[in-house]
Design goal:
heteropentamer, A alpha/beta (300), B alpha/beta (270), C mainly alpha (280), A: alpha/beta, five-stranded mixed β-sheet, 42% helix, C: 12 helices, 77% helix, binds adenosine-5'-triphosphate, binds magnesium ion, ATP binding (chains B, E), P-loop_NTPase (chains B, E)
């Protein structure tokens, strides 16, 4: 049978456990059953996914939700077709046994990424701690935040729980202390979503629907069989690296996936929260109607 | 061979200016076929300029240069030319350097290599064909350079101070070797030197040039019989010619290249 | 007839020095660990980094061969491009004057920053990686060959004219060999840098995984031993490329080290019927 | 007495060439856009990239000065280190033999990979950035100065011995000036590369934001014009550094371009009571 | 001044080997204070080796070298030494090159610069003090090199083919200039040359060295009265000395530096 080609553009330069639903759907033949031939490409850096969709180097994108808001602000016709995770699992991380204490945050060194997500969330944390940006020292630590945390070069790291746990648990056999999402004063919004360029979605509505359905099947299967799912990922994507890392990461991801209305479903409230977070930190000029950002039209 | 009978090279009213500086002023000279002519003159009197003109390297300002009656002004590749610097290519063997002319024009064939090897064996470099120039002494290098010039097969050869960098013993050996080649190969030779002894020892005729502007001052026929042995240099005939030539050269001498020198410091014969 | 000094002992000494020097680097590495007391997940001890390689020989072989082939092809492209550019620039002065500032500019642009557009324009195949490696390699080659061509003895060029040499033959026989020394200097520097180019290329456009992608993943996953294992292999590729060029140079320029031409270098001479004096 | 050709016209011509060459690069950039039909949010037109700079002059000035100072100090450290290393290596053969492989190794190691431990060892201040810039800069300097020192005319050294020269003075007066040409070649190449080092340094860990970090943030916010604006400024720093070294070279080596020593270069001669001949 | 009365330099039974090759064999020679001694000899007969030994550059195998009675073997910096290559430092002005000796030992003071300027003005280079060597002609460069040697202030000066690279007119000027300096400064000079005319013209005594092993062959006193004018070179006395010297030099001549040459190709006087 003739399979329809679909290319997923990932959000990160190399594959890791968040790709598991797709990897499983590939390995278990869910895409094939849906008449799809799915391949995955990886962007040159962690902020180029949208541009690759725009230049035709991918059909469906996997990226942080902030990308959609920025794209809308730049007039790029991008739309979220499904959220990947339903809750905000990002926050501050401390060394094992040293709880994150907002009351003593003043004067601390905090490792941050240069991404917009961190930038949008920090003000909420600071607000809750009752201090301003000038009261802490932000260190651009990028990928080396956890080693820096453990070697006491910084006091807290910012990250998402599934990645922080995957980093730390296999290495030091201990969990970091965490202050996540709403507990840290942050809005409870999704972190990742699937996107398409509007023109692609309109022209290939059935393909997108079929792809989402098959991906959801992969997600459900992987939730039920986490170890096999990791094995599928490593088989198809050897570059995903270490098994322990991906197992810890995937197990920490599973609880984020399903919302009150099931997988993938998005709401005005979520997107309003995201847009406001960015507008409050002056990263976008104005908050657009939620419908500009997302559509549930491709969900079954 | 359409020129005057027996004249190999005819230089007619040659003028050359570098900008406003007149380097050669109305130079006329006939070189007979098979003749050995030496050119003497103070530094800067235009000897190399004359050779560059004859070889075609230089675009002359005025005049004619006829080889066998044909104008060769501005046409390189018609005559052999050898300089004080041997200009051997370090990356070519002795054989490769001798056959350079062929390689540069049409590619060296087996015949070229064989001819070059004959030449080298004949004139004492047969054991060095595979050697690179760096393993040769100064005298050997000049000999290879001369063979390169010979192998290029031109009937007129211009040699511009070819032995200037050699010590006097090697130089005397090379002079005799050159005379032997000249005799056997029957080439026509123009030879620039600063060494009065060398010029007289080698030449059929000595041309003395004068500077500012560069021009021909005198031409002397050297009537010392050939073959010449080395001890002829202290013979009365030789010394008398040398005395004349030195008078020609230094009657004009300023302390060339020594600007600002006090004239009192110089002993110039009146 | 001629006495060539046996180069064997020379080679042995060189190899010995490299071994000692590399051993010293490992010692320094251990000393840093002792001095700073850093845990193994920040900097692993050399033994652990080497261990990763030997524990995963099939994977490491595959990664290394991928990165090696990117390095190799990119290097070839960069070297050829460098020589061609230099030759054109040396021949056509106006191209030289206009391109020289562009060359400087090309190296002043942080390569890490232009990688993304390259991928967007050229896709995920080998192309963008080759471009990045070549981009890094061509510069020292161009600069050195240009310097070399500019300093060719003018009298040698005149000699070629006097011998009636054609433009092309003069170029091949006189000009090009004259700048082979600078050319190899450029090639050696380029060989050191090439592997860095391959890593940047892999980080940017990784459809096949090589040592660079592996390093990135291992780094993100705090597999520090893996990071340093990959770095050891990358460094080995760099050093290997450098030494390879050194060896090629040795054989390509026999006139620098030998008295006579070796047989592989046109050292064969026509047979000579007799060494006796005879009329030519 | 002496006639120096006015270098003014020469300068004007050089500047003109740079302007034309850079204009050509912008034209090529536009052509790529037209040829590929890429939207502005993938690759912006040059005008937009330049526009970002002029619309945000205070921010851009601050970013540029931060990156510039990292580049500058790192460059100085690298250049000094390169010269010192070369001098030591040239003086002590055993150091030379052992260190040379280590130098090659240092460049074969992908710098991007060693950045993290540097930060952990040296903290977030200027130090790790300086080390990274210096790491890149010192290599061409060392290699060139070593080559230069090795090719100092041996007869000049003998002359110094014959004149009873001390070791230090011989070094300063004869050896060092003899390799000033290669030194500046190395410094020029290093100047091109330095800014890339500063970017890598900023990407690794910084508490201050410079053009490199801005570039990352702009990239994350899909502010493509900002990315390219930062790249333009980075490139300008690179070119500026290169040209700065060119100018320093011009004034530091007057004997290459002038007939007589300029006053700033010890060209003053003792007053002479009379130019008449007299007993010395 | 503890040596023999009037003897500046005493070389006693000097031997030097390069590996198994004997470059100097039992050389003994006394040079008187203020004397001008020229050394002639085939290439490779050890002239430069002798100078290197006297200058202290070389660690000699055996023998003594006494300057004013003190052993100076192996101690550089005791005598002036000048080579065919001028070895001017391109990055120093004429003044800087003349004062090089002071700069290299203790730093050049104002007095050194003034003395150097006097020297330059006196001998015709006053206008070029601020110039870099590249703007000087070959003759001027050699003059600066000589002034550097003079300014170093040693009483014995070794000159190894100092004019070998100059053309003959410039050379003759330089010879006369050197004689003038020698007369005014009252230095002792040892001078190596390949040019027989030059040696006889300059010297009080000519030492002819022989090769394999390098040794002294003959020593000739040159009794041509001073000051000598250039035309003395064709005087009968001069020519007679030249004849003798050439016989000494070439009676031994093999075609040095021209291996494999056919002996038949050489005309050597019996
Ligand atoms: N390319 C040139 N441009 C300007 N002037 C030149 C050029 N070539 C030579 N001259 C001048 O022309 C004159 C003659 O030079 P030429 O080289 O012919 O002299 P020469 O007799 O060969 O001297 P030498 O004995 O030193 O070789 C000199 O004054 C020289 O400065
Ligand atoms: N450093 C050295 N090692 C080995 N042999 C040497 C060395 N220096 C000189 N010789 C040899 O010693 C001999 C004498 O050399 P020297 O340079 O003294 O000759 P010379 O008389 O000055 O010759 P020339 O007239 O060519 O300058 C030569 O055979 C030379 O090859
Ligand atoms: Mg000439
Ligand atoms: Mg000598």
């Amino acid at each position: 049978a003739d399979l329809t080609k679909v290319t997923l553009t990932y959000d990160w330069v190399t594959p890791d456990f968040e790709l598991i639903p797709t990897a499983v759907a590939q390995a278990q033949g869910f895409y094939k059953d849906a008449g799809l031939d799915v391949s995955v490409v990886f962007p040159p850096n962690n902020s180029t996914t949208v541009r690759m969709l725009g230049s035709g180097a991918g059909d469906i994108g996997f990226d942080p939700v902030t990308d959609v808001a920025f794209a809308a602000a730049q007039g790029i016709p991008l739309v979220s077709i499904a959220v990947y995770s339903q809750s905000n699992n990002c926050g501050l991380f401390g060394r094992p046994g040293e709880p994150v204490d907002l009351s003593t945050l003043k004067g601390k060194k905090i490792g941050v990424y240069t991404d917009s997500w961190t930038k949008a969330m920090m003000p909420y944390i600071l607000k809750k701690a009752g201090i301003t940006e000038n009261d802490i020292e932000q260190i651009i630590a990028t990928d080396d935040d956890i080693p820096m945390l453990l070697t006491k070069k910084i006091d807290y790291a910012t990250n998402c729980a599934n990645y922080a746990l995957a980093d730390m648990v296999p290495t030091i056999k201990q969990e970091p202390t965490m202050l996540l999402g709403p507990a840290g004063g942050m809005p409870d919004v999704p972190v990742w979503d699937f996107t398409v360029m509007k023109a692609y979605g309109e022209a290939h509505a059935d393909t997108v629907k079929a792809w989402l359905a098959a991906t959801q099947k992969g997600m459900e299967w992987a939730t039920a069989h986490p170890d096999e799912a990791v094995a599928d990922l490593l088989k198809l994507y050897p570059a995903a690296g270490d098994k322990a890392y991906n197992t810890v990461g995937w197990n920490a991801t599973i609880p984020l996936l399903k919302g009150p209305n099931g997988y993938f479903v998005q709401s005005d409230a979520q997107w309003d929260g995201i847009a406001h977070a960015l507008a409050d930190t002056k990263q976008i000029d104005k908050v657009l109607p939620p419908a500009t950002y997302y559509t549930n039209a491709y969900l079954n | 061979m359409s020129g005057e009978a027996g004249v190999k090279l005819a230089i007619r009213n040659l003028n050359h200016n570098f900008g406003s500086f007149r380097a050669l002023n109305d130079v006329s000279l006939d070189i007979k076929d098979g003749e050995f002519v030496c050119i003497l003159g103070a530094s800067g009197c235009g000897k190399s300029t004359l050779f560059n003109a004859v070889s075609g390297l230089l675009t002359i300002s005025a005049g004619q240069i006829l080889l066998d009656g044909k104008n060769i002004a501005g046409k390189p590749g018609q005559v052999g030319y050898m300089l004080q610097k041997d200009l051997l290519l370090p990356w070519r063997t002795v054989l490769g350097n001798i056959t350079l002319g062929a390689s540069l024009t049409r590619g060296a064939h087996k015949a070229d290599r064989e001819k070059a090897a004959e030449l080298a064996y004949h004139y004492g470099l047969g054991d060095f064909l595979r050697h690179y120039p760096r393993s040769l002494s100064g005298g050997m290098r000049q000999r290879v350079a001369l063979m390169r010039t010979i192998a290029a097969g031109r009937e007129l050869m211009l040699l511009d101070e070819p032995f200037g960098a050699l010590d006097s013993q090697t130089r005397i050996g090379m002079q005799q070797w050159l005379l032997e080649i000249w005799r056997e190969m029957k080439r026509t030779v123009m030879f620039v030197t600063h060494d009065v002894d060398e010029a007289i020892f080698l030449a059929d005729r000595v041309v003395v040039m004068l500077p500012k502007p560069g021009r021909i001052g005198w031409i002397l026929d050297i009537e010392i019989p050939r073959p010449r042995a080395m001890d002829c240099m202290t013979s009365p005939a030789f010394v008398e010619i040398k005395r004349q030539v030195m008078e020609m050269l230094y009657s004009q001498a300023t302390l060339h290249g020594v600007p600002g020198a006090q004239p009192g410091g110089l002993k110039v014969p009146a | 007839m001629s006495h060539e000094p046996s180069p064997l002992r020379d080679y042995a000494r060189h190899v010995g020095l490299w071994i000692v020097a590399i051993a010293l680097i490992f010692v320094a590495w251990e000393l840093v660990l002792v001095a700073t007391g850093l845990p193994a997940y920040v900097i692993p001890p050399p033994g652990k980094a080497i261990g990763v390689i030997f524990d995963n020989i099939p994977l490491m072989t595959q990664l290394t061969s991928q990165t090696l082939s990117e390095t190799f092809y990119g290097y070839i492209v960069g070297a050829v491009l460098g020589v061609v550019l230099a030759v054109i620039m040396a021949q056509v002065p106006i191209v030289h004057r206009l391109l020289y500032p562009a060359l400087i500019t090309s190296q002043a642009v942080p390569i890490v920053a232009i990688a993304a557009p390259l991928v967007i324009i050229f896709g995920f195949g080998l192309t963008p990686k080759l471009i990045i490696v070549a981009w890094i390699v061509f510069f020292p080659v161009v600069v050195n060959v240009l310097d070399g061509l500019a300093s060719v003895d003018h009298d040698q060029i005149n000699l070629a004219r006097l011998l009636g040499g054609t433009r092309l033959r003069t170029f091949m026989i006189v000009r090009l060999p004259a700048c082979i020394g600078p050319l190899f200097s450029g090639l050696k520097i380029g060989a050191c840098y090439a592997v860095t180019g391959a890593v940047i290329g892999e980080w940017t456009a990784s459809s096949h995984i090589g040592l660079g992608t592996y390093l990135l993943t291992a780094n993100a996953q705090m597999n520090t031993a893996g990071v340093y294992g990959a770095m050891l292999l990358l460094t080995a590729i760099g050093i290997g490329s450098f030494l390879f060029v050194v060896i090629v140079e040795h054989f390509a320029t026999p006139w620098r080290t030998r008295m006579t031409a070796p047989a592989y270098f046109g050292g064969n001479i026509p047979p000579h019927a007799s060494t006796q004096k005879q009329k030519v």
